[in-house]
Amino acid sequence: MQKPFRPLRLGTRGSPLALAQAHMTIAALRARHGWDEGAVEIVVVQTSGDRIQDRALAEIGGKALWTKELDRALLEGEIDFAVHSMKDVETIRPAEIRIAAMLPRADVRDRLVGAASFDALPEKPVVGTSSPRRAAQVKRLRPDAGVVLFRGNVATRLAKLEKGEAHATLLAAAGLDRLGQSDVGVAIPAEVMLPAPSQGAVGIETLSGNGAMLDLLATINDADTFDCVMAERAVLVGLGGTCHSPIAALGRLEEGRIYLRAEIISPDGQETIGDSLRIERNDVATAEAMGRGLLEWASPALRALFEA
Ligand SMILES: NCc1[nH]cc(CCC(=O)O)c1CC(=O)O
Questions:
Q1: Could you give the cofactor binding note from the entry (predicted)?
Q2: Any atom of ligand 1 within 6 Å of the Cβ of 174
Q3: 88 catalytic, yes or no?
Q4: CATH number, domain containing residue 159
Q5: Catalytic residue (choose from 50, 71, 80, 88)
Q6: What is the pLDDT of residues 69-120, one digit of tens each?
Q7: Is the complex ipTM more than 0.90?
Q8: Residue 200 Cβ contacting ligand 1 at under 6 Å
């Protein structure tokens, strides 16, 4: 593919993790096409998610806060493509914008930081998180735990822990690894804490109408990651799309098919509805049906969380 005659403009949030992921994307493009350093420039776009730090995401409008400004920059032609943590990208995207590619997925697990294990935490431990999924899973493992709101970027959350605002916190291994903090925390097996849909995946979006950019980004797409993450996202669609409820989902390739697991959990951790099945790659319809099926098994109180 020909070298662009002007630098491509990569839009990203300005957090250290977002910038690390932007640089990974540039490295992938350069390695694939032999481009020199100036071929891609980074355009930092501040998002409302970055500005508002003192309230839970679910409370102030959800994941759209991470993408809205980058969507606008794409639509107005200020950037050629945008790089996101897929976990932060809304389930339903505007028709004009397409998820064009994903980089190879990193470690999908969460890491517990502040204690060697959930059992090692003191009685009535305080755990800092702003994720409804992590909060519910913590309560399932430790019904005596209290949860306090931890938001902000990875460094901010680690600083809160350092200051003693909680006994422990949970962070995505992928984020810690990409920030050079692989030594922080202990990984919790996915069997114990099923991760969030899309966790550990970096996605690249561009305009649906930009064929040249779609073709270019396809050259660095990791199809295994793409298909698994799309299956997890389809579970979210089945659950009602844009909700802020405790949901976990993970797809893994096994002998050419996707082994897909998902669960919804009541906020007090007392009720878990989970399912697993093997589906063909691209069988989005079955993944969606799995999400709908979870709701059918849920108690009325749990189901109500998804009807809001
Ligand atoms: N919601 C914030 C967010 N979005 C993506 C990641 C980590 C990187 C990833 O999952 O790809 C994080 C931080 C965290 O959950 O610890």
A1: Binds 1 dipyrromethane group covalently.
A2: yes
A3: yes
A4: 3.40.190.10
A5: 88
A6: 999 999 999 999 999 999 999 999 999 999 999 999 999 999 999 999 999 9
A7: yes
A8: yes
